[in-house]
């Protein structure tokens, strides 16, 4: 990719922001040198990786690289036989354990996230190295006694000798006869040996070896002869212990050196995966979407014949480096009959911002980043992007603004092909307007005839007219509000812009006589063209308002129709409920009558027949009447015109087994669907349901938007709050997060005394929607953070 273009489009600022989402040094370095790809398959793979990482991160709370370190210097030391220290080895162990955990997560999700699983395959399973380091070195960075039998024995001997030595010298210091000779009855150390402080004037009273004296010379530090042998034995064992520790560390270093090749491969995989996570987090921060990347597709229906088959369709695109709260989204696209767009309009109207937005979003898409635009945006992958933007005059090289522009343009023309994108700001600027306009038209003609996709900006009216009359080239404009004297930044393709110079001058207070005189000097054709443009814009705005009004009315009608359908469904459900209740009551009465008949027959068998026979006849007649009432209700008639087609989410269906209607909420398999019937959700065979109604697309989107609670975010910071404030904030946050269907949340309470942590965890333990919780891992905040997992809905 052209480095000059990357610089003028400020792609390095995108990389700076990307770097901030990386977790360790290698991935940060990789982010700063990241470049867009000119290979379609590779760019599509990068986009797939980013989207998979966004989806997986929303499901996995431990998808991070906490505890990963830059091991490159340590591997070089190990290969050069320089003994690694316990902290070095712990850094290697921490990195390998995190890599092993990420490998397990990625491979387990390979069916849904195949691109990420490839990175999991590259992370080598070096569990034996991590296990050996963990067996040998404690979390405090000390070689453990269990590292070797000899070390355990030596340390036991060191402890025994130390106890004996300390006991002997303490008894010497405590003897009453030695008290006059000692400055204090204490034991201290000098040069690693135990000594007692003897007054200088009593030198020799306690036989021993003088190891040191005080600054004043009044105190001598003497090792009594009685403990010299014990001191020697103790120091000897200490030396042997250190030799054994060094041997163990050298052994671990050799193990690391043997596996250095695989550890480096794991580091590279971790860095690559961390960069993918960074792209995902950056995309989430921008609320970006992944565009569809396409190749060049020449078709017979494209016009003119030089059309290279390029596609750019950006929907509500925003400049990624500007504040999303203030930047105006724009729609930009190439058509089937044009591949060169010339943007016109006033200064500071947003022409250059629109130009940079197109170029920067194309670069981001080819670098595997989601772009700040609505879903459905499409971009052709370019072999290279060339840009001439801004004033780059050079005093040292004696280049004027015009010369600087022409130098860049000459370089661009030599390299541009139909598979590249050219961005030209202020075509023909910096020289005589007549010559500049002619040059701009000639450049556009050359680029059109060469089939090079181009976006340019200009002020020249002649260029607007040229674009209007030239096949393959179309005008575009940025709007300007004459009432507020400020640009609206709205981009309109198909209409040229107006300079509005005279109107702006009048609004700013230029004397009317001067403005009128200037207007009289303007060519009548230009004034007529501006008037026509104004009328076209007015008609377009009126048509747009009419269309919006019609769409609003259509949505209202559809909503009313849906409401009526829902009411009819409720009436049908109520009718069925009443009839079913009546049938149940009739069956209950029938059963009671049968029991009574059984009792009558029993009496007939034991007594006179005539009265009972009459009663029996009456009962049988009543029974027949009841049976007629209790006949099963007929199935409701099927709709006059049954809907056809495959079932979709949101469809209203009739469930034959329940004699009730419901909404399709999931397509379980080719044979089954899940249906929401009232408060119940059940699985039913596709053959057992009948399609009754399709939802309106607009209403389904509105309902989905309204029914989804706003996410409170994945993190809650409670530091600095009192206990009662903490409980109120925590309760509201947990409820909102659960309703928003977040899988887990991260609660920051700090370490401190641990009181706030206890309050938070007691509340989580009692909360019904919290399945379990844990302390944060290294890189998540440790004991200052609690990660809570919700129960599944």
Please tell me about this protein's structure:
The chain is of the alpha/beta class. It contains 22 helices and 23 strands. A six-stranded mixed sheet has the order 10-11-12-8-13-14, sandwiched between helices. A five-stranded antiparallel sheet has the order 18-17-16-15-19. α5 (72-79) packs antiparallel against α11 (260-286), α8 packs antiparallel against α10 and α14 runs parallel beside α15 (461-469). The chain is extended and about 125 Å long. The model is unreliable at 392-399, 608-615, 629-641 and 698-707 (pLDDT under 50).
Annotation keywords:
16% strand, extended, alpha/beta, five-stranded antiparallel sheet, 793 residues, six-stranded mixed sheet, single chain
**Biggest beta sheet summary:** 6 strands, mixed
- Let me know the number of strands: 23
Instruction: List the total number of helices.
Output: 22
- CA distance, first residue to last residue: 48 Å
Instruction: Classify the helix fraction into a percent range.
Output: 40-55%
Strand percent estimate: 15-25%
